[in-house]
């Protein structure tokens, strides 16, 4: 399933990560790897569910040094090896509807770029207010930091 | 993607339809057929979107003889020919999150039963209140009537 960017509703970051696509995929596809780069440090990630297939649960729980917490249950809508991962917070395991504090669907795509990886994170929201709130929460800085962490982690695998 | 029934949250009807599976599938897979049996008559269905593939829009709009209306945009999560159709009202076209007056995910499965079709409609809700509301709206009667209409329509194709 491909998607089309709607600038009024969506947020996107495209970066070329200096790591081979096979290693970027590896860093994504194992929860023990994923938790190492998933959220901006010094926040930490606990992976509570990682059933890496279409309809499988994906649940991360993040903790900050000041006691802050962020609970993010969701589901995989698509897992295409080495190429595309789609997740949403609007459904839970087995595609059951659920309420989310931040309803979104994220399309992650990976393409070869020489020996590096063109990595795209496109996030779809249900309305302009949700997009605005996500941007104001620090979407670009937060997801950008995670991409840098992913790049460094994958390159060292 | 299979699902497991949770009696506290889900609603299900299983019926053997006296029509071959190929015709039941045919009655589902074309909007000109679908609109003939989709909602309990004398209500009528307008199919506003029917992009019959994973991630494709599925939008029905129903009208009653007394001026009542029911607007149901959603998306296909899975389309496996002759076997399984999954839709949700919690996402729209391209898997974009959306609010729904009735958040649900429906799993439709079709299996051979002699020359007939074992037809299962399993509907997942996000909480007990949603399930209860859906049942009180007349889930069993409404979906049951549609299944009878589907059976008669498919058998005559």
From TrEMBL, chains A, B:
The UniProt transmembrane annotation reads: none
The residues covered by the Activator of Hsp90 ATPase homologue 1/2-like C-terminal domain are: 18-154
**SUPFAM superfamilies in the cross-refs:** Bet v1-like (SSF55961)
InterPro entries with a match to the protein in the record: ASHA1/2-like_C, START-like_dom_sf
Spell out the CDD domains in the cross-references.
Answer: SRPBCC_CalC_Aha1-like_3
Family classification: Belongs to the AHA1 family.
Q: What name does this protein carry? A: SRPBCC family protein
Q: Taxonomic classification, please?
A: Bacteria, Pseudomonadati, Pseudomonadota, Betaproteobacteria, Burkholderiales
């Amino acid at each position: 399933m491909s998607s089309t960017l709607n600038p009024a509703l969506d947020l996107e970051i495209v970066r070329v990560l200096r790591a081979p696509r096979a290693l970027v995929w590896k860093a994504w596809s194992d929860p023990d790897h994923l938790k190492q780069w998933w959220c901006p440090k010094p926040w930490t990630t606990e992976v509570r569910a990682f059933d890496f297939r279409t309809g499988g649960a994906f649940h991360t729980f993040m903790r900050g040094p000041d006691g802050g917490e962020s609970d993010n249950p969701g589901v995989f809508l698509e897992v295409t090896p080495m190429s595309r991962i789609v997740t949403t917070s609007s459904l839970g395991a087995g595609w059951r509807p659920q309420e989310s504090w931040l309803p979104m669907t994220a399309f992650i795509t990976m393409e070869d770029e020489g020996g590096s990886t063109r990595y795209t994170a496109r996030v779809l929201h249900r309305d302009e207010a949700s997009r605005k709130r996500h941007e104001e929460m620090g979407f670009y800085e937060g997801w950008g930091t995670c991409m840098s962490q992913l790049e460094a982690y994958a390159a060292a695998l």
